Structures are given as structure tokens and as C-alpha cells.
Amino acid sequence: MTATDPALTALSQGWCALSLLHGKIDSHIERALQARHGLSVREYSLLDVLSRQHDGEGGHLQMKQVADAVVLSQSATTRLVTRLEERGLLLRYLCPTDRRGIYTNVSDAGFKLLEEARPTNSAALREALDSAAENTELAPLVKAVEGLHTAAA
Q: The whole model's pTM is what?
């Protein structure tokens, strides 16, 4: 295979289109969340992931699992957790069964803000997808994303 191989060129174009779609969605949601709730996309994602924890078996996520879920490094996730904790949106406490472990939970204020921000996030996502669907290069990717939603439901 060479750099001008049609298969590689198509693959590269597909990757560029996917990256473009992600960037458009991410920036649209970022603007909406910042303007209405003072949250970044990463902050919203972290609150959302942590809000789904529970006290049952495997219910609390380790920092690596949280980092993977919000697509950040562990150190960046720790800094993000610290910022949200300083804002009173998260709480940290020692694991009751392993004193070396530290859990992070969403505070009452964090849950309130998250519930207020969820409709904004959903509306901004819908707007971004609708806008991207008008672009012939991005429309197939939008259909694929929407198909994933339908398959999961």
C-alpha cells in the first residue's frame, strides 16, 4: 500500500469526516452548556458518568474507569475532579472496605446542576446533528450515530 492508495485515501477521508462531526458537536454543546450552566462538556460528562454510580457490586468507579469514560488521562481527570470538588459539585471520601481507595460522588448541588443541564445537552446535541445532516459528507455519519441510538433503545 502506498500513501496514494485509494483505500487509504477513502479511509483518511472517512476519519477526517468523523473528526469534523465530533468537533462540530463538541463545540456546539460546549457553547450551550457554558452559556446556560457554566459547565464545559468534560465537566458535564464527568458529572453524568459519576451520577450513574451506585452502592451495589461494582457500583463505584475507579479513577481509571472514570478517565476512560470521559476520554481523559487519569491526571487530567483528577484535576477535573478537583475543580468540580472545589465548586461543591463533587465529594470525595474513603472507601469503607479499602482505606486506600477514594470514591468520588456527585453532591446534591452537582445533581441539581446536572439535572438542569441535561435538557440543554440533549437539545444542543440534536441541533448539532441536525445541522451536520445538511452536509452531504457528514449526513451518513449522522445517520450512523442516530442508528446507534435506535439500536440501543
A: 0.86
